[in-house]
Design a protein that fits this description.
mainly alpha; extended; 0% strand; 3 helices
């Protein structure tokens, strides 16, 4: 597979995932996180995340970004 074929496949998959999430970055990231958690569980890998007070507090925003492909 040449580099351009690899990039075409990458872009095709990104577009499909973006469409599946309705262009929502939040949904895209939630689905990516879920996929990683499932993969880790299947492989017997325990994930751990850094803790930060800044990230412990949920934020709300009325200006949700969209995924541009």
């Amino acid at each position: 597979m040449s580099e351009s074929e690899i990039l075409k496949e990458k872009y095709r998959i990104q577009a499909a995932l973006a469409e599946e999430c309705g262009g929502s970055v939040t949904k895209y990231m939630e689905q990516a996180h879920q996929a990683v958690e499932e993969m880790a569980a299947n492989e017997g890998i325990q994930l751990s995340y850094a803790k930060s007070e800044e990230f412990d507090q949920p934020t709300t925003s009325t200006n949700e970004s969209s995924i541009g492909v």
